[in-house]
Amino acid sequence: MVVDYLPAQKTDQLFHALSDATRRDIVERTFQREHSVSALALFYPMSFAAVQKHVAVLERAELVSKRRQGREQFVRSNVAAVKKAQVLLGHYEDLWRGRVDRMDVVLEKQSRKSRGR
Amino acid sequence: MTVSNVVTDPVALTMTIVADFDETVERVWELWRNPRLLERWWGPPTYPATMTKFDFTPGGNVAYFMTGPAGEIEPGWWHFTLIEAPHRIEFDNGIADETGAPRAGVPSMIVRVILSEVTPETTRMTVLTEFPSIEAMETFMTMGIKEGLSAAIGQMDVLFV
Q: Does domain A8-77 have CATH number 3.10.310.10?
């Protein structure tokens, strides 16, 4: 059984973050390329501070990452990174499934040996 | 099927695998404690592991290498941070350079192993791995792991033993 699992608190944060049209738009724009917060602010009829707050909500839900360069803050969507991590973890899972199978074989062989003696 | 659960978290970069064995906890512990047994299951059949140094004590180090299908050698290291026989092992696992020292610029992953008695004859093993970064994960995956995933590893077990 494979479960993609998020704790309840994380799920709440995720749904809350995506419940707002502006925030969904920020995720989409920053998925295509990195944007500064001030460049993002130009797209929406709201203050820079309001956009900054939206970005903070997305950041808490781990949907975007921020980096600072001089006075400017740049925002990048995490979606591609999360997808990539999921693929790599899938490979790692396969590796461990193989290990568990081999452990089973070694254990069986060991107990046959000890029974034989 | 012994694997009862797998949980991956692509944000935290962790994987937890839970497996049940019809064996006593001491026998499962032995698979981790005895390097000759460990060698038989750590690496895939196409990428077997050889332990060259194995100091199974808290603070102790392990040096090993994996041998690829074309004879390529991939050295690695462990550093035990916790050992509580026969229930808990924690270690850092990283890639080594030719001298066996941790390869510069490649952070290690953390592995936590918990063995618990479900019944006196059934042992549950939980292994949690925490990767430091996606970049590090990619590096680990190219170290013998990708190649080892080639088709139907499970069926080749019999050749390996």
A: no
